[in-house]
Design brief:
mainly beta, nine-stranded antiparallel sheet
Length: 602
């Protein structure tokens, strides 16, 4: 393999924007970091489908790099294989499931030996959708009990509704109608109270031709019992199953992004990059198949990972590699920790030491993080120390860098916030060029707004105003055209006392140029920086959920489960740190991972 990824030609795109925010409009779930050929599966890439309780993972992706290129046909190989799973409602037996492009799909109903009556297998004409070269998304699989009265409409997915129409006078038979968009599709009677009732007696099934699959059970509802009295009729539902009626074709030679299906049978799908040579350019993103991409570091050192980008609003889980005993997670194997691919900055580490299924106090769970030097996006400002803390990026201190003006270092009286045992979240770090007309404000974070108030008659100086929650917080003149001007002359800085840390620059803007016209005056801003004005206390003995700060030095922080044993009991979720928990499988063998929930707002 070559010593570095290829450097692409870069084109500058000038996009004016009046809203600056560090909030991402999407969620990135990354896989383990790689430097050469690599293999990811559901255990090492949280973007692939994985069932913790049953330890089901079906997807594998392999890269084979030749001189910074993924050469066709086998530079990228993706394979997924169906695995047996059980319905949540156990009486229905089992089916086979497959992960495909990170989603869970139905493959086939199984003639399950552990089931006294593999009902769906016998009820369906075609049992295996993958043999028909298609997959069906699983919309519902539940064993939650609910009691409803007759006349109730049970709302299903995709516009389907099950109308509990009536119960007969003996309280044994339940009359049902299936509707979609108000139109009756099917009617049936179930007999949950029949003596020695079978799964067939208790279950309502709706079969349908879906794509190439004929008479496949796509909706099933189990009725535990029925009850009729003088004043009310009730039924108890204890199982719901539903498949999508929109099949996904996976026929041979189907293209998914840069990948093509090479093999498909009743249990396996394999794809590769046939007819698609892929170059891993330095600092590039390559979309290889729907939802899955490769991100390559903007660095001379070869470094890349696969990732899944999610843009739809909602709550999503980011999980770590799966552990079965003592384990150590870093930003390399837990995408919930902060990581900068370009500069290889990932400072967080959590070690779980398991003793008889327990993380024993005081060191069963130890979390460490350390400061690392990072450069501002606007490079003329030099560098600062950054720290990942509980998955977020925090500021530690300004650094006096050699060969750099280090303006923010010079203008701050106190340079370090961690020396006061505090951290500040980095809200904005941007070098995008913005054209700002006089009188127009740039909305920053935490209620701040930056306004280019006016430009002097000579067009050499600009007056900058800073507002906080609508009130003027600061006004200052910046002179980008001063003779022998350096970044201290053309940078606006706003300083603030944060606890015991005096006069720390928390907002900075670099004025690249100003323009005075006959109708409009404007300034070009090409560097923006903002720290939160609310500090996070990391002093000794401060508690964060079930972890306590054991040590806070000038460049590192250590937390542990001091005075608290943490039991890794089956089917348990433990809040370890704010936003980060441990999830344990509902299984006899110990199996667990770190989990972080992230929400994308609408």
């Amino acid at each position: 393999m070559a010593s570095q990824f290829l450097k692409p030609i870069l084109f500058l795109l000038l996009i004016p924007s009046m809203m600056m925010s560090n909030a991402d409009p999407y969620l990135e779930i990354r896989g383990e970091l790689a430097a050469d050929d690599f293999i990811w599966n559901g255990g090492s890439f949280a973007g692939f489908y994985y069932d913790l309780d049953d330890n089901i993972t079906t997807e594998v992706l392999r890269t084979n790099i030749t001189q910074c290129r993924l050469l066709e046909p086998d530079g990228i190989v993706y394979m997924t294989k169906a695995e047996k799973d059980h319905f949540k409602f156990k009486d229905w037996g089992s089916y086979s499931v497959i992960g495909f492009l990170s989603e869970r799909y139905f493959v086939a109903y199984l003639d399950s030996p552990e089931s006294s009556n593999p009902y769906f297998f016998h009820e369906s004409a075609d049992r295996n959708a993958l043999e028909d070269e298609q997959l069906l998304k699983i919309l519902a699989d539940s064993d939650a009990e609910k009691t409803v009265s007759s006349g109730t409409i049970l709302v299903l997915e995709a516009g389907y509704e099950l109308f509990i129409k009536s119960i007969d006078i003996d309280g044994e038979n339940v009359y049902l109608e299936l509707l979609r968009d108000g139109r009756v599709l099917d009617s049936s009677i179930v007999c949950p109270c029949k003596e020695n009732a079978s799964a067939a007696d208790k279950t309502y099934c709706y079969r349908k031709d879906i794509g190439r699959s004929k008479d496949l059970v796509m909706i099933a509802v189990s009725f535990k019992n029925a009850f009729r009295s003088s004043d009310q009729d009730l039924v108890t539902i204890n199982g719901i199953w539903q498949l999508s009626d929109r099949p996904l074709s996976v026929s041979e030679n189907s293209a998914y992004g840069k990948m093509t299906v090479q093999k498909v049978n009743g249990t396996v799908i394999s794809m590769n990059n046939e007819d698609n040579n892929i170059t891993l350019c330095q600092g590039s993103v390559v979309h290889i198949m729907p939802g899955i991409s490769i991100w390559t570091a903007d660095s001379k050192e070869p470094r890349y990972y696969i990732f899944k980008a999610i843009t739809s609003p909602g709550s999503y889980e980011i999980r770590s590699n799966v552990a079965t005993d003592s384990f150590t997670w870093t930003a390399q194997n837990f995408p919930g920790f902060y990581f900068d691919l370009d500069d290889n900055i990932g400072t967080e580490k959590l070690t779980a030491t398991v003793t008889d299924g327990i993380l024993k106090s005081p060191d069963g769970a130890v979390y460490r993080t350390a400061a690392q030097e990072d450069g501002f996006e606007f490079e003329d400002w030099g560098s600062y120390a950054v720290m990942g803390f509980m998955g977020e990026r925090y500021f530690v201190e300004y650094i006096q860098a050699q060969g750099s003006a280090s303006v923010l270092f010079q203008k701050s009286e106190d340079k370090s916030i961690l020396s006061d045992q505090k951290l500040l979240k980095i809200l904005i770090d941007d070098d995008e060029e913005i054209a700002v007309y006089c009188g127009i404000s740039i909305a920053l974070e935490e209620g701040y707004e930056l306004v280019v108030d006016s430009i002097d008659v000579d067009g050499k100086k600009v007056c900058i105003e800073l507002f906080h929650n609508g009130s003027l917080a600061d006004r200052r003149v910046v002179s980008p055209y001063q003779l022998a001007a350096d970044s201290a002359d053309d940078t606006y800085c706003f300083k603030k006392d944060i606890g015991d840390c005096k006069d720390l620059v928390i907002i900075a803007a670099h004025i690249k140029s100003i323009f005075r016209g006959s109708k409009h005056d404007l300034a070009i801003i090409d560097g923006l920086w903002q720290l939160s004005q609310t500090a996070v206390d990391v002093s000794r003995n401060t508690k964060f959920e079930n972890m306590t700060v054991r040590e806070a030095a000038a460049d590192s922080i250590i937390l542990s489960n001091k005075d608290l044993d943490i039991s890794l009991s089956r089917n348990k979720e433990i809040n370890l740190l704010p936003g980060i928990s441990i999830k344990v499988a509902d299984a006899s063998e110990l199996r667990y991972y770190l989990s972080k929930e992230v929400t994308i707002d609408d």
